[in-house]
Design brief:
CATH topology of the largest domain: f41 fragment of flagellin, N-terminal domain
CATH superfamily of the largest domain: f41 fragment of flagellin, N-terminal domain
Order of helices and strands: HHHEEEEEEHHHH
CATH class of the largest domain: Mainly Alpha
CATH architecture of the largest domain: Up-down Bundle
Radius of gyration: 37 Å
Number of domains: 2
Number of helices: 7
Largest sheet: 2 strands, antiparallel
Structural class: mainly alpha
Strand order of the largest sheet: 1-2
Number of strands: 6
Distance between the termini: 15 Å
Length: 324
């Protein structure tokens, strides 16, 4: 009789322990909303879950990098829009001087305006976003442009950058971003290409940087226009007007290239966002618990545990009576 009671107690105790552990697991599922909280919950699902999480991590990395690049590209576009407006105003001034009958004082006022516009151009060329210069190539912590204290208009030579009114302190390295696996896209414009009209830049002596044929050193274009106005050099102004048009076209062309690249980045971001949604849905199918089902299961397990507890209590009472 005692052996039978001992066996019964052990069976009931084991049943209570099992129900208690199961209830704890279902309560954890209800609290976390996840049916997969550790590898032992579903060993077959671990590998696809880990693979999906890795893919999600890669997508998040792509999205963060592209978002930062797009912020810089949009900031650069804003500065280039301002540059275009500056060039338009400089042309208006030059045309006004050529077509008008201005005295020395009038010309001086307009020349001073070009000086101010050139300073605005310098500010745009030295534009920043998040504390980093936009047009310095890899040298994002280096201000790309500075005035040349040794500039002499008499010595100006478009084939010798040391004689130019402004000096470039960045480099010619393009920033290429991997926007999709295997696809890299240039997401910056370098100052030498944009403002100096040269696609390469060598900062080591002897100087060998020169404005490429059909391209323009934008700073020098403004400087030469200012000098021609002060000197009332009509021929020089006619040349300046043509150069201003060329420099404006150069800016618009490079800005358009940047705009096309920005559009490509936006498209890639939309694609990656769609991929992220798909991956999260896949992960949800493996990990997420049905809230209603989890609640019902918890109620069922609590009822089963309470019933087992009641049975154990009744058996215990009967056993005590046997000894009375």
């Amino acid at each position: 009789m005692k052996a039978t009671q001992g066996t019964t107690y052990r069976m009931l105790g084991s049943r209570l322990n099992d129900l208690s552990l199961q209830l704890e697991e279902f309560r954890k599922i209800g609290a976390t909303g996840k049916k997969l909280n550790r590898p032992s919950d579903d060993p077959a699902a671990i590998r696809p879950v880990l693979n999906t999480r890795k893919q999600l991590s890669n997508v998040d990395r792509y999205m963060e990098t592209m978002g930062q690049a797009l912020d810089k590209m949009q900031a650069a576009d804003g500065h280039l829009e301002h540059v275009e407006n500056i060039m338009q105003r400089v042309k208006e001034i030059a045309v006004n001087v050529v077509n008008g009958s201005l005295n020395n004082e009038d010309r001086s006022v307009l020349a001073d305006e070009i000086v101010n516009l050139r300073q605005e151009l310098l500010d745009a060329a030295n534009g920043k976003v998040d504390g980093k210069y936009l047009f310095s190539g890899y040298k994002e912590s280096t201000k790309p442009f500075a005035e040349n204290p040794a500039y002499d208009p008499v010595l100006y030579d478009p084939t010798d950058h040391t004689t130019w009114p402004y000096q470039y302190q960045g480099d010619d390295n393009p920033t290429r971003l991997e926007i999709t696996p295997g696809e890299k896209l240039q997401v910056n414009l370098t100052g030498n290409d944009l403002f100096f009209g040269t696609s390469t830049w060598n900062s080591t002596p002897p100087p060998n940087n020169s404005v490429e044929p059909g391209r323009y050193d934008v700073f020098s274009v403004l400087t030469r226009a200012e000098e021609a106005i002060r000197a009332n050099d009509q021929a020089g102004l006619q040349t300046s007007i043509a150069d201003i048009d060329g420099a404006s076209d150069q800016t618009r062309r490079l800005r358009s290239q940047m705009g096309n690249r920005a559009s490509r980045v936006e498209t890639a971001m939309h694609h990656q966002e769609a991929v992220r949604i798909d991956l999260k849905q896949i992960l949800s199918r493996y990990e997420d618990a049905d809230a209603i089902e989890a609640f019902n299961t918890i109620v069922q397990q609590e009822n089963a545990f309470q019933a087992a507890l009641n049975v154990t209590g009744k058996v215990s009472q009967l056993s005590i009576l046997d000894y009375m």
